[in-house]
Design a protein that fits this description.
- The chain has 136 residues and is α/β, with parallel strands linked by helices.
- It has one domain: Response regulator (Rossmann fold).
- It has five helices and five strands.
- Strands 2-1-3-4-5 form a five-stranded parallel sheet, with helices on both faces.
- The radius of gyration is 14 Å and the shape is globular.
Length: 136
């Protein structure tokens, strides 16, 4: 059974806030962080199938390989294509959102401005993980 969450985020403060919010919602699943799409793919390729994350949360704007490029790569790798990818970004551009959804993103979340909004995002991610674990 898959478990855990992979956060792909280049900003250290955003990583800290996300992980802290996940702990506040009593997340029993570990959050593993990578700083860009290339590192995320290398990490995922090192895992056995049963250790793959339940959900991947990916920032859209990152150096080296951005979130949409990572999404395309993930959807083209058979063992990874069914892991839901949540795009997590400051962008409120509707065209960008629609493009990510067309590429196969499960959802598109705008990064929160307040800590209470961060908790809401963490709860949404946990609900998604729980729902998927019930279906595996």
């Amino acid at each position: 059974m898959r478990s855990g969450i992979l956060l792909v985020e280049d900003d250290a403060e955003d990583r800290f806030i996300f992980c802290d919010a996940m702990q506040c919602v009593d997340n029993a699943d570990p959050v593993h962080c990578e700083k860009n799409g290339i590192d995320a793919l290398n990490y995922l390729s090192s895992l056995p199938h049963h250790r793959l994350p339940c959900v991947i949360v990916a920032d859209l704007n990152m150096p080296m390989m951005n979130g949409s490029e990572l999404l395309v790569k993930l959807k083209n790798i058979e063992i990874l294509r069914n892991i839901p990818v949540v795009m997590y970004t400051t962008s409120v551009n509707e065209m960008e959102k629609q493009a990510c959804l067309r590429l196969g993103a499960h959802s598109y979340l705008t990064k929160p401005l307040t800590y209470s909004q961060s908790i809401s995002v963490a709860e949404m991610v946990m609900d998604l993980c729980r729902a998927l674990q019930g279906n595996l």
